[in-house]
Amino acid sequence: MTKPTEPNPAEEHLALSRSGGRREDQMRPVTLTRGVLPHALGSCEVAFGETRVLCAASIEPGVPGWRAHDHAGWVTAEYAMLPCSTTTRSRRERATRKGRSMEIERLVGRSLRAVCNLKALGEYTVTVDCDVVNADGGTRTASVTGAWVALHDALMAYVDAKKIARLPLTDQVVAVSVGMVSGRVVCDLDYAEDSSAEVDMNLVVTGSHEFVEVQGTGERTPFSREKLGELLDVAGPSVDALLRAQDECVGWSD
Asked: How far apart, in whole angstroms, are the C-alpha atoms of residue 15 and residue 97?
């Protein structure tokens, strides 16, 4: 019989220093709630801990002019933070778009297109709006994860209405953050961790465990190839947990 390992007080202290006493490889509680917006073809409220994002998908006939001769559809996204989603009220984005918002919505759009057969979609444009209700770190990763659910349901609505022949999604896609905080590699950073991270990385991963995007930055220190491998390994359980949450939400594997 293997002798139980005695708890290490130092390690216990490190684990308890995270929100909710999380392990280094453990996400905050995740919820995906479908159908929260009755007028949207597909919608999902996603929560990563205290971070909450509303995702809504709509479909319109036609595609952007530059894509008119491709005989294929288009999937895009818009992202914004509601004025009181942070501790200090932020102004609504109107004529002038923030660079950060544009970067995130492009990330969400790229992530969704990576798992969508645009030829099978036909000449429709799908827009997924991601509005941050409350921000506590990880708004872009939550947006990608919730946007896929909203996209799935909007496309299924068009399949049911016989406007498209079959579901053009080829796979799931999720996103999670991972980083190095106080010398430790941790997953799903909340705001306190993100704002003090030495290394900050966002991963977008398909259900087949292929990468769509790896955004990694040495905020305060460079990192080695060995450390990169550790970051990816620590993110693994959270990627699997998010894929399961999506599957349970929409019945992808049924």
From this structure: 39
